[in-house]
């Protein structure tokens, strides 16, 4: 068996339009190298995220060079078939179907034919589950679940700023599964998508002012999730007007200035008057198992805007960088 495989790798820090290259000579991980409960996955599909290319441009590339070894295979999210298991793996076997999330700073990425995953980064899915859909659950699913589950009870109201993207479409559904009333914002062309995902109320930011509409509704929210980051402007301030007394604001895509202003300044000096959580996705086997159960039983559906062949990875990222995707973008791995 050959010790090489196909992969898409960045060769240096900087824009992926200049650094991302296809290779058929990437080192293939071996079953013999597995330790503990690690597994070797034959990748069938990968889902891409903005963080894939942003990680390669941290600190204008200087921070990326300090944290990443090059060449580096790109991508965090995948699904596939278990090709081998480590000596400590007891609840999974060769041939099982799984989805996985890779730590972008510690491991080779998902855009390759084979990859090793630690137990905290994978979960089984049913053999009949669509692997393209499963591949989308890693970063987007964990982000949605971990930014909602700890902060709500059944009957609470939540607002999702950015309901039509990969995270937002899953967050709408998870909010409903957990028994919440869900309001989401999106553009005119995505209203039907958010409605199909289960949103109780939808604010079309193309035709209405989001903050004004929230305030006029009179509804108080236990949780406000900002997955957009730049619009509405200074949302970390105005969100306080619609949060309950103990409500929480989650900043899912904040700028550095927003983090500083929202978390370090008191409310009387321009900061948020409520608890603010700057969210960072964490791998969790238990959380991934829960997402898998919901996907397998049909409670959770994945909106896929477009699927690309492995040879079209650069085109897929150009599509993603345009913004305003309706759900996820998937790569098929040969």
TrEMBL record:
Coiled-coil annotated spans: none
UniProt-recorded Gene Ontology molecular function terms: oxidoreductase activity
Domain Enoyl reductase (ER), chain residue ranges per copy: 15-331
Pfam family, one: ADH_N
Superkingdom of origin: Eukaryota
InterPro entries reported in the protein's UniProt record: ADH-like_N, Chloroplast_QOR, ER, GroES-like_sf, NAD(P)-bd_dom_sf
UniProt pathway annotation: Secondary metabolite biosynthesis
Protein's UniProt name: Reticulon-4-interacting protein 1
């Amino acid at each position: 068996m050959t010790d090489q495989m196909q992969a898409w790798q960045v060769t240096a820090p900087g824009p992926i339009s200049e650094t991302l290259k296809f290779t058929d000579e990437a080192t293939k991980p071996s079953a013999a190298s597995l330790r503990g409960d690690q597994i070797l996955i034959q990748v069938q599909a990968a889902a891409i995220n903005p963080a894939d290319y942003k990680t390669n441009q941290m600190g204008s590339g200087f921070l990326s060079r300090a944290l990443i070894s090059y060449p580096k295979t790109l991508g965090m999210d995948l699904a596939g078939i278990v090709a081998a298991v480590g000596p400590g793996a007891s609840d999974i076997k060769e041939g099982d179907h799984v989805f996985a999330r890779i730590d972008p700073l510690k491991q080779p990425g998902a855009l390759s034919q084979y990859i090793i995953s630690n137990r905290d980064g994978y979960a089984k899915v049913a053999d009949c589950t669509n692997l393209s859909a499963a591949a989308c659950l890693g970063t987007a699913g964990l982000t949605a679940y971990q930014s909602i589950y700890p902060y709500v009870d059944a009957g609470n109201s939540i607002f999702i700023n950015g309901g039509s993207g990969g995270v937002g479409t899953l967050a709408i559904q998870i909010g409903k599964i957990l028994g919440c009333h869900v309001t989401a914002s999106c553009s005119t062309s995505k209203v039907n998508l958010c409605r199909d995902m289960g949103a109780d109320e939808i604010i079309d930011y193309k035709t209405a002012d989001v903050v004004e509409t929230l305030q006029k509704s009179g509804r108080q929210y236990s949780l406000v999730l900002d997955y957009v980051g730049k619009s509405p402007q200074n949302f970390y301030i105005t969100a306080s007007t619609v949060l309950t007394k103990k409500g929480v604001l989650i900043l899912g895509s904040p700028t550095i200035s927003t983090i500083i202003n929202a978390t370090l300044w008191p409310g009387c000096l321009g900061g948020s008057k409520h608890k603010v959580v700057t969210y960072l996705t964490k791998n969790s086997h238990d959380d991934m198992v829960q997402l898998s159960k919901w996907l397998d039983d049909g409670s959770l559906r994945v909106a896929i805007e477009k699927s690309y062949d492995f040879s079209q990875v650069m085109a897929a990222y150009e599509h993603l960088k345009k913004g305003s995707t309706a759900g996820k973008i998937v790569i098929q791995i040969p």
